[in-house]
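Form P-L/3: holo structure prediction, ligand DLL.
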Amino acid sequence: MAKKALIWNEEFETMPRPELEKLQLERLKKQVAYVTERVPFYKKLYADAGVSADDIKSLEDIAKLPFTVKQNLRDHYPFGMYAVPMSEIKQIHATSGTTGKMTVTCYTENDMEVWAETMARVYTAAGATSDDIVHNAYGYGLFTGGLGFHLGARRIGAAVVPVSGGLTKRQVTILQDFGCTVLTATPSYTLVIAEAAKEMGIDVRKDLKLRIGILGAEPWTPEMREEIEEKLDIEAYDIYGLAEIIGPGVSVECPYHNGLHIAEDHFLPEIIDPDTGEPLGYEQEGELVFTTLTKEGLPLIRYRTRDRTVLHAEKCECGRTMVRMEKVRGRTDDMLVVRGVNVFPSQIEHVLLSFDEVEPQYMIYVDREKDRLDTLEVHVEASDELFAQGAEQIQEVEKKIAKAMQEVLVVGAKIKVVEPKSIERSMGKARRIVDKREVGF
Ligand code: DLL
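OUTPUT (holo model):
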């Protein structure tokens, strides 16, 4: 099926791969020399490892360089790994994370320029233009979502409504009254907006002009996408990014939805084996690692994202030559080990969303009983229809889900179907896992 694929920057986004790889190599050598000269952390790291920019003769030579990890940024909190004096820094953001200190990231004037460019590519890949009204429900503040999406909307010349998260009913009123055409939010908050619209008696097909959702900042399954597209009558695009690298704008889907195109002229991706650190090839699942190629404020070399995915290099039908990453399958540190078995939250979501009797709102609880056996309990909200049918029907559904879950996860999980709207809603990234065990894995 031929689809209309808009491209913001033809020169770079459709560059033949040999030319692109040449550009990446040039930029890589420059960036490694730059950090060695300007960041004491890298100077010491490379001196200790006995490597330098001169050892980089091909892109594969990147494997000679040690990794950078989040702990390195924490150890140099807040500004210890910056490569320029504060007079050159124009904006500072941070992520709180779930544990430990904030990770602080920064932008020079040129970094802001790269951010605007990569976000303009994002909007364009999703089919947004200057004719659109963007309802930006990502949080404005230290989180990179709100301001990153704002910057990109300005760059493509769209009208941006800086709604931020919260006051969900008012969000629906704005969507309706302003005739917004593009929604930018986390997938979980998008569902909350859809739910509020339903409660308010809005017919999304008649009363709203929304046509596109650019959704990300957290893992979401294809089943979640279907729910969202159906409930809001939009085409949903997955967007990925992380504050340390640039924020949103690292990669995004095109209308073919066969992976997320990475802005590879700025961010060089690799896939590694998370246990051994060995490089893996295209088509192999592993941990995603990024090297910034043009960053000035906080350049990072071989930064371990902890996100698990697969890369594909063949050209996409949209015309882009940039490598595609599959939807993130979860984080290596989100993996739960329950009674010795690896369980990924995405597997649980996948099973739950295959049942029409429940809603896509759930919580995962892991605990350890006195006899030292781990327990896994999943709470999921009943649909209004199921809830009205009463306890017996609910128990039947619990049994059905538990059986399906056992088949997928191997370990057994207790399923509790709870009252509609009883699970707390999030305005930003959803927190769906509570691990009460004292021993961390
Ligand atoms: O979440 C940046 C962002 C804002 C991306 C808005 C997309 C939209 P951080 O707060 O630093 O940055 O969180 C980064 O979130 O390492 C992934 O684990 C996760 N993540 C981000 N996008 C996706 C996605 C922003 N599309 C961390 N799918 C990353 C799955 C995602 N996980």
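COMMENT: The mean pLDDT is 94.
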